[in-house]
Structures are given as structure tokens and as C-alpha cells.
Amino acid sequence: MVRVGVIGLQGDVNEHIEATRKALENLGVAGEVVWLRKPEQLEGISAIIIPGGESTTISQLIVKTGLLKPVKRLGEEGLPIMGTCAGLIMLSKEVIGATPEQRFLELLDVRVNRNAYGRQVDSFEAPIKLAFSDDSFPGVFIRAPRIVELLSERVKPIAWLGDRVVGVEQDNLIGLEFHPELTDDMGVHEYFLKKIL
Amino acid sequence: MGGFEIIEMKGTERLKRGFAKMVKGGVIMDVTNAEQARIAEEAGAVAVMALERVPADIRKVGGVARMADPGKIQEIMDVVTIPVMAKIRIGHYAEAYALEALGVDMIDESEVLTPADPYFHVDKRKFNVPFVCGARNLGEAVRRVWEGAAMIRTKGEAGTGNIIEAVRHVHLVNENIKLLQRLTDDQIYSVSKKFAEPYLKLARQIREISGLLADVLENEPVYEDYTYREIVEGLYKVLLEVKKLGRLPVVNFAAGGVATPADAALMMGMGMDGVFVGSGIFKSSQPEKMAKAIVEAVNHWDEPDIIADISRDLGEPMRGLEIEKLQVRLEERGV
Fold first, then answer.
1. C-beta atoms of B26 and A161 within 8 A
2. Which domains does chain B have, with CATH numbers?
3. Which ipTM was obtained for this model?
4. DSSP letter string, B146-166
5. Least CB-CB distance to B24: which of A11, A118, A128?
6. Cα of A65 to nearest chain B Cα, Å
């Protein structure tokens, strides 16, 4: 039985828990999804999702709760981790526009620019192309960070808005500018969960 | 890469409600200048509310409270990376359009400011920017959601540092939702009719002035272009969704009286998605410490040992006011 943890410090945690449950069901996999708030809960975890939210708040709480170091170590050891929006920022090696006090997991070889798309009035929905599907996927971009540079050969694009990369994969890691958890399409969660199967 | 043609949609309900989902589990802090805004951001606030005065000072100063100076709001937007919200007077379209043009991330159509319209709230569906609105009970909450609010907060009683009204409002909404779940759809339809009544106030008044019977026709527009029947149908739809979900269909925060970490934990324990702290932070003796402690309290609301620990040595919280002794009850504004 798999055990997926959604880091539940702040943000749209419930939406990811629901999406992951549905995706597991679609895949016919027995598993539980847990609201992750403490290092002790990492015991026996099969995969981790970092939700959308405010990366400044998540950063502060991930340090305070003592989750930063063990999650980073698990990521380095190959545990599947997916981050959406603020979660992508948390995963990234380099962050433009971070506040001085922000800390990151620095696992994913990308440079992102926080809030690069502008303010909430600039938030948008647009169909995007996924590497693993012929159908378009509903891209929901909310005060989204932008992937401005891939920093190594290990990072592979997996999602495009027009010709711009909006989602990447690096072995066990997935980072997305958009919010698949706010849609009814579980395709991205299913693709991620296949990493543990 | 053969991507799809980029067709961007902005201001959709999903984007507006989605924005509110991103602040769940967080604390939104009232700030009046750039320095306070940075303190809030550093303490872990998910957003700041840019104001000219915190509610406690609005009470003290009196007079008409209006939208803040856009220069002031801009100053705050320039200094923080987290979302910036700002308040408009209830029903004041021009203030709302001005703040949307300025680029604030969310508008609070707030009873804390002096209402501009004695009959109606803004039709929030006309905007790309998301709105949060206060509510004392399920009727107010459902009306605001139908009008397009992407987020609801309890009204509480702002500027008092007294949690009792926020607690009252959470009970009134939560228990009404439980009641709703015991009702048949027919009964819920009559609840919608009752909840639609405040929209008839203007139509009834002009009938009275004209010496006619106060009965308003079902197919007559009473609010914007909406007829009474359309409003009832609209509220009915929202109520059915509330019944199905067992909660409001939008993010729901506590506001109006949260002054300590324990207050914040209490609100989270009652099922709130997060808290607004108005005067409670910068009217306390150690704002930085208080701000951080309330952020942690929202995160650890169900861990009493942590609440006890972070509540230690915070200095004086804001002084606070008794509700019975208030001259102005802000919560009564805008039904």
C-alpha cells in the first residue's frame, strides 16, 4: 500500500489530497493520503506533494517544523516529490524575487522567477500541452512563478504553454507553474504517482 | 514543441476562488505602511490588507472611513512579494474599479468602512479581481457568494480585540449549514426566498413612495438586471451546493476580534480556513512576536502544547473593548 504525503503547512492542501485520492483510485492503487505537518510522519512515505500557497509562509513553516532537511534528504535519495506553483518555488535551486528570509529545498535544477506573471488580475487559465498526453490540459496559473532557465541536462520539459516550458521533470522530481489540483483532470497526478509504482 | 494556441481566460470563477484557496491555512494582516507590511511578510503572513488606519483607530477617529489613498496602497504593493488586499466601502463601484485598476490582488468589500450604498453590495461578477466579503450568518454569506464573492470572512466586531462576535458568526453559519442538511429541497427553496428578501428593500420603498402596494413582481429586475425570481433561483443553487459540501463553497476565514494566538487556534478549531488579524498585531506591544505567534497558531491550532508555548511572553495584546459599550456596531452594516 502506498502512502502519499501532502505537505500541509499552508495553501491548497485539501485540493491536492482529494486529487491524489482520485488519481490513486483511477490507477486502481490502494493507498492513503496524509496531511503532512511533522517530520515523524515521513516514516514509510512513498511520495510527497508540495501544494500551492504563499512560498514565504510555507518556507518559514517548513524550517520551523523541522521538515526542510529530512524532505530535502528524501528528495536527494530519490523519493518522488511534486511541487505546484509555490511548491515549484520550494523545489527550485534558484529563485529570483525571494525575500531575504526565505529558504528552499534546492533540489530541482531550474531558476524560477516568483510572481513573474504579475499580480492576481494577471492570473489566467489556458490550455497547455503535456509530454505524456495527446489531449490539452487545463492550465490554471495563479500569481504563478515562471521557469526562466533550466540549469542542467537532467531537467526535462514536460509541459508547455505555447512554446514556453511551464512544467519540468528531473528523475524523481516534478515542478509545475500551474495547479492541476484545481481541475477535474487527474492526468498529472496519475503521471506523478506512477513514479512510485 | 507543437503546443496549443494560447487562449488565455482571466477573471474566471476558478481563478478567483483559486486565489482564495492559496491563502488557506494562513494569516492576513492589516498594515498601514511599508514598514509594517515588511514585518508582516517576514512573520509569515500569506497576504496583507493595506489600510490608512486599523479598525481600532477608525473607531477612535470616527467620521467617514473610505478606501485608502492609492499612493499608500501602492507603497505597500511595492515593498512586499505577498498578495496585497485593500478595502472598499460596501456598494462603492468606483472605489472597486479604482482598486482593480491599481492592481490589488483582492478587494475586501468591508463593513469596517462607512457603507456607500444603503441597499446593495457590489455585483462582484463584473470584476476580474476577486472579492472577500464579511458575513454574520448564512443568509449574508450566501448572498455574497451569489454576488460573486470568492471568499467569505466572519464580520466579528472589528477593532475590538474581542472574539465573541466572530465566535457568534461562526456558530450561526455552521449550525445553519447543519440545519440545511436536514431540510428537503422544497424547504431549502423557501429558505432561498427568505434569503432573497433584502434585495427587495429598494423596490418596496419606491412602491411605498408612489402610493402602491409593496408587492414586487417576480419578473421585475430588483438588483442590477436580476429579477426577484432569478435571485431566488441563484441563492437556491448556492444553498444546494452548501448542503452537498457541508460548508460554504468558497474559502471562509475568521475576522473581527482575533487578538491572540489562542483566538486564532479557537477559530481554526471551529472549522475556519484561516484568519484575518486587524488591529491585533500592530496594536500589541510586540508586533513582530505577536505576528509570528499567530502564524504558528494557525498552523498548530490542534496542538495545545505548542499554543501554550508560543503564547508565552508576548507582552500586552491589544487592549480590547466590550461589545455592550460600543457606540458603533460595524457588523450591522451591509446585510
1. no
2. 13-183+248-320 (3.20.20.70)
3. 0.97
4. HTT-SEEEE---TTS---HHH
5. A11
6. 10
